Amino acid sequence: MRTDAEQRALRKARWAITAQIAVVVSLLVGVAGGIAYGMLLSGQHADADRTLARTIELGPASTPPGCVWLFTPVLRAPGGPVRAGMPIAGLNATVPSPGDVHTERRSIGGMTYTIRVENRGGVVSQAYFEEVYQIQDRSSLVFGLVLAEVLALLAAVLCGRVLACRAIRPLEDALRRQRTFVADASHELRAPLTRLHTRAQLLARRSSGRDAADLEQLVRGTRELGEVVEDLLMSAACDRPSLELVELGVLAEEAVAAEAVRAGEGRVRLAVTRERRPYVVQGVPTALRRVLSALLDNALGHTPPGGSIEVWLGVPDERHVELRVRDTGVGFPAADAERIFERFARGSDGDGRRFGLGLALVREVVNGHGGTIAAAGHPGDGATFTLRLLRAEPT
């Protein structure tokens, strides 16, 4: 059964595909209609020009075609009343020399006319072509194109909806299988992890000294692993975890303590630098704990024996809390400062180094909390990761 969040996402994807198909079909019809309209207009203008040229060539002695008027200095055709505004005396000046021809389109008395002025052997003639029927033809074409556009758009929406449903169906199946796998795997892991956590607690209570401290770290690790499993179950159900007030300083100290044994075995100094003040942010504790764990894991993996790792916390302004993980390890080229947060990105310095998934997941979690994370480094001179989150008022 799909969750409400998945249904909304899939519905949005269907409509997005449908809209894209409709837009493409609409644009194709519009382009085809524009080409047809342009060809009709060009043909009408060419036909009007040919008709006027032939009318002037035949002269007033021959009756002009319908919707055409011819004016010479002494005669006009056809006979009868002259349309208001014809002829236009000022146009004669446009053809001062024999053989000159001038053509334009002008509105006279609310009607559009194609006008040809020609100087034939010193005699200037004006011919007028009324475009009433051409305008009607263009209006009919525009109406037909609009109707075709509407029908094509409706057909595109219907067809696009069907195609979108078919295209999304494999995605629905994949999401269902993925959610089922995550839920089943997490459920199967929950029981053995609970038993392991309980046994670790019993051993920690019965032990003392150094063993008790190590077992306490084991208890904490199993608890964190159980939290990861719970988060996976929530993710499979598409439930959004609730935000809490989180003391980032406490999480940093716990993360450093959890990595203390590993750092000691690698002869790497690991320390927390902070003021004794609250560093409270609003977020998901388990997710932020994994962010700190991933940053420390990255630093330990790239810091040679004898190096050091410092976790620094501060308040750069009244609105933010800042955490930096600074190491003295191998560093990275400045060109990789953004690429290291990409999934399975490779380094640009030719050593074939891969950055894996850890830092990519760190950025996703930080962005989901409304924060930012940036990296700075130099080959052989260590790296610094700066995490900045919105500050929350402690209760």
TrEMBL record:
<keyword id="KW-0808">Transferase</keyword>
<feature type="transmembrane region" description="Helical">
    <location>
        <begin position="21"/>
        <end position="40"/>
    </location>
</feature>
<dbReference type="InterPro" id="IPR036890">
    <property type="entry name" value="HATPase_C_sf"/>
</dbReference>
<dbReference type="GO" id="GO:0000155">
    <property type="term" value="F:phosphorelay sensor kinase activity"/>
</dbReference>
<keyword id="KW-0597">Phosphoprotein</keyword>
<dbReference type="InterPro" id="IPR003661">
    <property type="entry name" value="HisK_dim/P_dom"/>
</dbReference>
<dbReference type="InterPro" id="IPR036097">
    <property type="entry name" value="HisK_dim/P_sf"/>
</dbReference>
<dbReference type="InterPro" id="IPR005467">
    <property type="entry name" value="His_kinase_dom"/>
</dbReference>
<keyword id="KW-1133">Transmembrane helix</keyword>
<dbReference type="Pfam" id="PF02518">
    <property type="entry name" value="HATPase_c"/>
</dbReference>
<dbReference type="InterPro" id="IPR004358">
    <property type="entry name" value="Sig_transdc_His_kin-like_C"/>
</dbReference>
<keyword id="KW-0902">Two-component regulatory system</keyword>
<protein>
    <recommendedName>
        <fullName>histidine kinase</fullName>
        <ecNumber>2.7.13.3</ecNumber>
    </recommendedName>
</protein>
<dbReference type="InterPro" id="IPR003594">
    <property type="entry name" value="HATPase_dom"/>
</dbReference>
<dbReference type="InterPro" id="IPR050428">
    <property type="entry name" value="TCS_sensor_his_kinase"/>
</dbReference>
<feature type="transmembrane region" description="Helical">
    <location>
        <begin position="141"/>
        <end position="164"/>
    </location>
</feature>
<keyword id="KW-0472">Membrane</keyword>
<keyword id="KW-0812">Transmembrane</keyword>
<dbReference type="GO" id="GO:0005886">
    <property type="term" value="C:plasma membrane"/>
</dbReference>
<dbReference type="Pfam" id="PF00512">
    <property type="entry name" value="HisKA"/>
</dbReference>
<feature type="domain" description="Histidine kinase">
    <location>
        <begin position="184"/>
        <end position="393"/>
    </location>
</feature>
<keyword id="KW-0418">Kinase</keyword>
